[in-house]
Amino acid sequence: MNIWHDTIDAPRTPRRVRPGQGIDVIVGTWPISPGQSVWATWQRVGANGDATGGNAVAEWRHNSDVNSYWLAHLPPFGDGDRVSYTVQGSSPEGAVQIAPVSFRVRPLYIAWLWHQHQPLYRDPAAPGSYRYPWVRLHAIRDYYSMAALAAEHDVHVTFNLTPVLLRQIDDYLLNGATDGALDLTRRQAEKLTKAQVEEVLSTFFDADWHNQVYVHPRYRELFEQRTASARFSRQDLRDLQMWFNLAWFGHEFRSGDVRLITGDTVTVARFGSSAGSHMTTCWRWWTTSTRSCEPSSRSIGRCRTPGASRSARRQPFIRSCRSSLIQIPRTSTGPARRVRRDTRTRKTPRRTSSWHPATTWLASVEGRPACGQPKAPCLQTPFR
Fold first, then answer.
1. CA torsion 209→212→215→219, rounded to 10°?
2. What is the mean pLDDT of the chain?
3. What domain range is 198 assigned to?
4. Which of 148, 214, 370, 371 is 20 to 30 A off residue 361, Cα-Cα?
5. DSSP code at position 107
6. Spatial distance between the Cα atoms of 208 and 248, rounded to a whole number of angstroms
7. DSSP per residue over 244-259, as a string?
8. Is there a domain that residue 362 lies in?
9. Looking at residues 205-210, what average pLDDT do you find?
10. Would you state the pLDDT for residue 323?
């Protein structure tokens, strides 16, 4: 009789055992023969040093090809228990067993890290302008709304905003930067050239169809009109100019007033309730000196993430999520620690007083002196 366990076809489930969780031990034997029996002998050593043990008799489950498979149930264990078990078998030919298998019972610690990153979209041929609007549009939707949602629940999460993203947001806020979509929005529909009309029709449906387009009757109507290659009037173009921007605002801003941590109250609900010829008035509001919707965009952008304390962080100006690899070891005296690693040497860098230029820039934006050590490697909120 041959016996095996802890393989692909005969695993332990779950692999990582949590406190109070039942354990299934699958065992394989060969050949298929009458008179066989299988069991698992287990021993437990608790966190306080007490020891217990027992046997778990396996039940035959099925045969597959020339093998038999058995299932034994180990009892639930407590936090910190160290458990070892030995799978044994018996047949008319004699007894067999395999090497002991051991594991430690502990909770599963999960760290949620949202890595918010955008590449540098700056147009080198047009200073102060960006080729794509994704920094601006995500800033008035995901970057605020995700953290606002996290703030409503007693959970923990980390939001990491890269310096290259923050630099572009601040360029919109402090320097009046623009982008191609924003320029097309500000231009009167009657003054759009043929090429600009085609640009609007080609790019102003760049949104999630189910969650941003179909949920707005007028925007959906324009979308179906476009898919049918129907002609767009100037009023249709004006409506599209507005709905593309409105659909990118977070749901809370389209539903009512939102009180930001800056003290500003923001809403674009009055625009969403307009339709047809009323969009002409909305467009005029947008393009006046007060730019009714754009102050809302800027106010939201200033918040970046609600309820979060942003500290200067040592990291490259442009960093991919892969280079943000972190290790979060379990500690018994406090929350998980974050340790930034050098991905080339796999060693934890020593603390020094030198600062990356991106850190110096962030400190200047926040009005903080560029000295000392950053308290955390990324933006964190205690909410999720």
1. -80
2. 78
3. 165-303
4. 148
5. P
6. 9
7. HHHHHS-HHHHHS-EE
8. no
9. 94
10. 35
Q: Which of 273, 303, 333 finishes a domain?
A: 303
- Cα 138 from Cα 297, distance rounded (Å): 10
DSSP letters for 171-195: HHHHH--EEHHHHHHHS-GGG--HH
**What would the pLDDT profile of 152-180 be if each residue is shown by its tens digit?**
888 888 889 899 999 999 999 899 999 99
Q: Give the CATH number of the domain where residue 92 resides.
A: 2.60.40.10
Q: Which span out of 91-100, 333-342, 371-380 was modeled with the highest average pLDDT?
A: 91-100
Residues 6+ apart with CB under 8 A from 273: none
Q: What is the pLDDT of residue 359?
A: 37
Give the pLDDT score at 301: 62
Task: Report the greatest alpha carbon distance in the chain.
Answer: 94
Around Cβ 151, how many Cβ atoms within 10 Å? 16
Residues 6 or more apart whose CB falls under 8 angstroms from that of 241 comprise 184, 185, 189, 200, 204, 283
What is the rounded (10 degree) CA torsion for 274, 279, 285, 291?
90
- In this prediction, residue 125 has a pLDDT band, given cuts at 50, 70 and 90, of confident
Residue 264 three-state SS: coil
CA distance 56 to 72: 6
For the record, the structure tokens of 141 come out as: 């939707």
**Contacts by residues 224-228 (CB-CB < 8 Å, ≥ 24 positions apart):** 226/201
